[in-house]
Amino acid sequence: MRRVTEWFFPALPTSRIAVLRTAIYLFVVFDMLMLVNDVVAKANAPAGLYRPLALERALHLPAPSVAGVQTLRAVLVVGCLIAATGRLPRLLGWIIAVGFLEWVMLGMSYGKVDHDHLALLTALFVLPTLGRARLDDHRPDERAGWAIRCIQLTVVATYTLSVWAKIRRGGWDWPTGATFVWAVERRGTALGRPLLHVPEVLIATQWVVMALEALAPIVFFLRGRALGAVACLYLAFHLITYATISIHFAPLVICWLAFAPLEVVARHLQSVWLSVGAGRLGAADRTAAGHPVPVVRDQAIGPVGGPPERRQPQ
Description:
Elements: H1 2-8, E1 12-13, H2 14-35, H3 39-43, H4 54-59, H5 66-83, H6 89-107, H7 118-126, E2 140-141, H8 142-170, H9 173-176, H10 179-187, H11 199-214, H12 224-245, H13 250-254, H14 262-290
Antiparallel strand pairs: 1-2
């Protein structure tokens, strides 16, 4: 039981959360403006096309309006830009989590539901539970470990549940049929279209994809370079998918940061910040050397960080 608790609540540096939080909130802005960016346009569509998801129906949420979604977008963009700096982590965090969930549900209530936002939404809901997290705070904290583990579990679940969905919906015709042939014909790129002449490669690739998704839990048993190598393998898989059939999983890819030792990035950013500060301090010292500060009465300027020296009476 103790080992299970330690696995779900590993003590990880709080600085890792500080870096992850900034990356996640900035990505949400990118996602709204570049990926799920058709919510306003869909609000202009005929009301009959709106098919609310199960959660929206359960909460009796109203159909989207143009003014409503534009206001939601503005609140989310401004909130994410502020939250990315570490300010108001709880207040803005919960507003962003609930607001972005609504944004994504509205975008997927018109006939197509993507599963690439599952890990991103999980990250948005666990980050506000931590409060403030600074780049210079490298103390291990079980709360930080729990949040990281939740994101990691959802990243892996996205792959494993995808296998279940493929078999449930398409049966074993998914890996043995013309799934990728159809995908290349529909949205193939200049790199992917030549593969239509070698359908055997596409069928073999379907089996490789199924294997990669089914074996995703292996990342929990790896450490160090082995974990980094496997993570790069999955990221390469997404890069190849985008390069051949124009399907990206950017919201899932950004959440792979939960497996990275981001405290190293935090230390680097901290050292850069200190170097900049030291440079400014040095410039101020040089300016002071060129313009001597007048001594008032018996007070003299002492060394930095030390008590002021007293001049001996003449």
